[in-house]
Amino acid sequence: MSIMKRLSMIFSAKANKALDRAEDPRETLDYSYQKQLELLQKVRRGVADVATSRKRLELQTQQLTQQSDKLEGQSRQALASGREDLAREALTRRSALQQQIADLGTQHAALLAEEEKLTLASQRLQAKVDAFRTKKETIKATYTAAEAQTRIGEAFSGISEEMSDVGLAVQRAEDKTQALQARAGAIDELLASGALDDPTGTSKDDISLELERMASTNDVELEMQRLKGELGAGTAPRQIEGQPAAAPEPVAQQAEEDKA
Question: What is the residue-wise DSSP string for 160-212?
């Protein structure tokens, strides 16, 4: 099979699938019903046209009959007056009119038969259109109910396109939330273990923080003792646990020697 033929088959299949998805049987039924109404209207117009032509022939026949009757009367008057020539002329004209009346009668009979046939066809078509309309509405109602029932079933089962999209969105949100929670937990573990440096200093453990506080306290006490010594407070600075004893000031040492 050639590539072009395969492509043609693929495009035809996809187009047929798209058309089948887009087609609504209710719209198709309404369209068919509309076409039948248009056909019925055309048949009715045909019946009206034939009836109009028949009526026109009847009027022409009536006029010719009146003229024929008038010529017959004139021929009678001519014979009564002894004018056979005029009577013969009137009868000749009357004979021509009679031929026309006969021809109109033949056409009238043909139109009448055609009118009756079209009228019967119109009545049959009207019955079919009425039956189709009833069937159409029944099919539309059944289709609408089946469509609603199907949508409800798909919504409950979660197999509809809309519900599938919602389910996928929820699943993506849950997956993303779990990923963020795992990342946050991993970062906390790395900070607590010291594998990551915290520029704010808030990631130090309790032991490091306590040692830093003790070192800061010792520095403050030493600074206080130094200042007291300079001001002559007289007492030796208190030895801080964990620190070597400070040497006594010269003034305090001389006072101890004088007492001895």
Answer: SHHHHHHHHHHHHHHHHHHHHHHHHHHHHHHHHHTSS--TTSTT--HHHHHHH
